[in-house]
Please model this.
Amino acid sequence: MRGRAERVYMMFCHRHRLQYRFGSRCPKCAEDQIRAQQYAASGALNQRWGTLCSQPALLNQDQFGICGTTSAVYLLLRHDQNRARELYEATFADLIPAHRNRTFQIALGHQPVAINFRNLARRYQLGLERAIAKAPAELEAELKKRGWDDAKIRDTKQKKPIEYQEWVKLLHVNTECFVDFCVARGLGYVFKQIAKARYDGEKTEFNLEFSDPQALRDYRTFTRYGNFALRTYNLAFILQDILGAKDVHIASKDGPPPAAVPLAPPVAGVTSSTFSTVKQLEGEFTRRFGMGHAAGKFAVVSVFGDLCQPRVGHVSRASPAGAEQGTKQRNQMTYNHWVVFNGFSSVGAAGICRKNHVNLKVWTWKTNFDVNVCEEHLLSYIQDVIFGHF
Ligand SMILES: [Zn+2]
Ligand SMILES: [Zn+2]
Model:
């Protein structure tokens, strides 16, 4: 499936004498570029890692589509810091002299895996470049969503250029989260090394769904920038086979909206069930999650992203994204976002809303927040839950 566009953009690095297709540098130059940054120095890496070990909630996927592996790293930081450290040291084996040749021993069988830093650096560099290129248009789109018109945007750009530029920068990649990206994406790299067929299937069958609508349908328009979306069974595979989670179980919502893409292949040892009412889902949480993380237990949940409204605290309508799935407006798979639930409980009335609610304690994107969802709308936000414990 060679597109004409690929030949048009073929470039040559004279320094390294190699051809490359994307970004402003060849892969080796991209690696050199990243290595030279202050945020990639051993001291800076160790400092960020220390912060994440003491406060796992600060882990931040930033502008990258890596919510699945980021959720897995968050759980590892909370429940199994020894293995988290092994993953960190293997991820930066090429960068931190003290960890040279360090590999990652996965939980179930297989040889230890060496993580190639150049592979991560290349994606990070491309992600940085793309975020910078896209930020101005993204900011405008966001402002328009909030009711700004062209005149107001133009006016603000002219009258408050410095503030406006600060807003644009918020949409750039935040290099403070370099370690966060590398460790989470490094886990994706390990996945590729030990389960090539699964990894390839994930790219061609699922990440394709997120390919750039302006470009040829090509998963690489998504994955080469550091993104890597995961379907439920593949995240369960990472949790169980790679990270050693026990009693891994998938509870899936029965019924619409239907998944528009094939499910990933089942995983030996991972059990499954379905739910179609809030009561049944609550039963699953009671049985499999109980008192939660105090017992090393976890619940990773694929939700529609519009559930994540930390400042609102009350969700009183059905998921707009969930409703769009499978409709004319959006005939591809709607973006599903992996988050961690640290709590799930019925709470009755909430504030001025007299309906019954479920209180969710959600972690995602470096934030813990509580949200009360009107019970009748809860299932419109939730697709699958992966339970287990470390
Ligand atoms: Zn080069
Ligand atoms: Zn309500």
In short: The chain has a mean pLDDT of 86. Residues 246-389 form one domain.
